[in-house]
Design a protein that fits this description.
It is globular and about 45 Å long. By secondary structure, it is of the alpha+beta class. The chain is built from nine helices and five strands. Strand 4 and strand 5 form a beta hairpin. It has a five-stranded antiparallel beta sheet.
Amino acid sequence: MRTPQEEPQMQLQYRRSFVKLASAALAASLLVAAPWAWASDEAPDAMIQRLSNEVLQILKTDKGVQSGDADRAMAVVDSKIMPHVNFTRMTASAVGPGWRKASPEQRQRLQHEFKTLLVHTYAGALKQVGDRTVEVLPLRGSPSDKEVIVRTLVKGKGDPIQLDYRLEKAPGQGGGWKIYDLNVLGVWLVENYRPQFAQEIHTAGVDGLIGALAARNKTNASNGKG
């Protein structure tokens, strides 16, 4: 159990992380997904470039997102981004060793709360995307690779934003590529969360982490922001 003295410190740590992830840089991560299907043999860098351009066009014309409609932004994130993420792998990596100790029910709850957290965060950042373009840098690797890093620069006002993606080839014919981590300005999302989650689990167990995430999501929902 956390002491009353430890609670403000933990809340401050989470708040700093969430504010950081909700920056305009992280908002650019929304440019990588769309509901359209793609060919199973499409290269991952080509996929990122094509989907980036398609979603940029949606963001430029979606009046709800542009007006700051939180519900609309949440719907866009949940429907267009999350289906293209290996969320089980992302959650397990963020939770770390505690994932192996979690029961199936706890794992489901962790995925739900972590997904809700990221959807709130992304939705709050959507309106910051603005008028941008995406340049995909040359891919390092070979066509036989099952995991790759696609590096991009998001260009607009100010300096370009470094935005990189770790993707894996989904098994089976037509599986396409799935994102399982992203790097914004040199910080990988999973690595950013892992020490915070580990501290929470060490202090209050897996249920304590679930409770902390649920509390943060409740606050986000009441505030209408990420």
